[in-house]
Amino acid sequence: MPENSIDHIDFNELNKKAISQPLVTHMYTADPSAHVFNGKIYIYPSHDIDAGIPFNDNGDHFGMEDYHVFSMDSVCSKAVDNGLALHVDDVPWAEKQMWAPDATEKDGKYYLFFPARDYEGFFKIGVAISDSPTGPFTPQPQPIKGSYSIDPAIFKDDDGNYYLYFGGIWGGMLQKYRNNIFDTKNELPKPDETALMPLVAKLQDDLLEFSEEVKQVQIIDENGDLLLEGDNDRRFFEAAWMHKYNGKYYFSYSTGDTHFICYGIGDNPYGPFTYTGRILNPVVGWTSHHSICEVEGKWYLFYHDSSLSKGVTHLRSIKVAEITYNDDGTINTLDPYCE
Ligand code: FUB
User: Fold this and answer.
1) How crowded is the C-beta side of 292, counted as CA atoms within 13 Å?
2) In percent, how much of the chain has pLDDT > 90?
3) Residue 1 pLDDT greater than 50, yes or no
4) Domains identified in the chain and CATH numbers
5) Ligand 1 centre and the CA of 306: distance in Å?
6) Is there a contact between 218 and 272 (Cβ–Cβ < 8 Å)?
7) Pairwise CA distance, residues 235 & 218, whole Å
8) Whether pLDDT at 94 is above 70
9) N- to C-terminal Cα distance for the chain?
10) Given a cut of 90, is residue 6 above it in pLDDT?
């Protein structure tokens, strides 16, 4: 992931125009997955550090090592840092790159889902368990069988089933897989071919393994055709998220190299999802990654940008802004910096 050109940005002016300010300023945080558990907001972000690794398209400079969980009494209150929740050194199978996590609750236990590279260099997805939403979390000794790539997002449907969405191209390695099988010869499709789609699998009752084969999540256009690889403004790149609004399933994601957070709407957790529009226009920094959470009847987008670090793309800060829906169920696009 190349660094954005930031030479032209006046950060004092930008911060005045920003629709929200960083929730956390004593460390860098990114990829915020937000949930309400027992009436309180919990945010599960990446913990950005400068690991001193040179920038490349693989995202190797995102050398994160651990997670902290943040809690908030309301979207306006202070985000409290609850300390170290999980460190890569405590995960037997994981070597490095603790990227975007997510968490859920079941029967009074909390499950943290996280990607990391194993000792052979493959991204896998692990689960760690705690009695508290803030951790510390105890990792399973092995990653989820059949998991690969990055950016796990866990969704609990109203019927009590849990689904894990995941995947990401470029550094997330999704382009190396076809039908869940890795082959080093695999590459991204050609621009006029079908894009690589994100992945989903239902979880077992214990939330520790998939209960079915990993499936592709289909994102289709207004004619019912799968999005094409060359459709960079709309095709999936990374940062899957699922939420439900008025009985419809909203699958949202980042378009990566075009920096939009987009969404499609479907009728069930597997899709297909018809591309519908943009939720967030580009932020400062190369990556964009979000979650969507209902808090006391209002809907919020948790997202990040690199304004606090003055544009350093791997030193990001989590933020929150309200989103609104139109009567037809579409979401009004947010501009992160107003004119
Ligand atoms: O934080 C590392 C990576 O950057 C995430 O996994 C991606 O979604 C992007 O935000």
Assistant:
1) 25
2) 93
3) no
4) 11-332 (2.115.10.20)
5) 13
6) yes
7) 11
8) yes
9) 28
10) no
* HSE-CB for 253 with a 13 A CA cutoff: 32
Mean of the per-residue pLDDT values for the chain?
96
Q: Using the predicted structure, report yes or no on whether residue 175 has a pLDDT greater than 50.
A: yes
CB-based contact 13:306 (threshold 8 Å): no
Q: Are 178 and 189 in contact (CB under 8 A)?
A: no
Contact 237, 229 (CB under 8 A): no
Tokens of 254: 């980042």
Question: Would you say 150 and 175 are in contact if contact means Cβ atoms under 8 Å apart?
Answer: no
Between CA 243 and CA 241 the distance in angstroms is 7
Q: How far is the CA of 287 from the centre of ligand 1 (A)?
A: 7
Task: Considering the candidates 31, 102, 229, 305, report the single residue annotated as catalytic.
Answer: 31
Strand partners, 28: 48
Residue nearest to atom 3 of ligand 1 (CA): 99
Q: How confident is the model at residue 9 (pLDDT cuts 50, 70, 90)?
A: confident
pLDDT in tens, 269-325: 999 999 999 999 999 999 999 999 999 999 999 999 999 999 999 999 999 999 999
For residue 69, pLDDT beyond 50: yes
Strands across the sheet containing 66-72: 28-37, 40-48, 66-72, 80-87
Q: Which residues line ligand 1 (CB under 6 A)?
A: 30-31, 46, 62, 99-100, 150-151, 168, 238-239, 287, 289
How far, in Å, is the centroid of ligand 1 from the Cα of 252? 15
Helix, strand or coil, per DSSP, at residue 288: coil
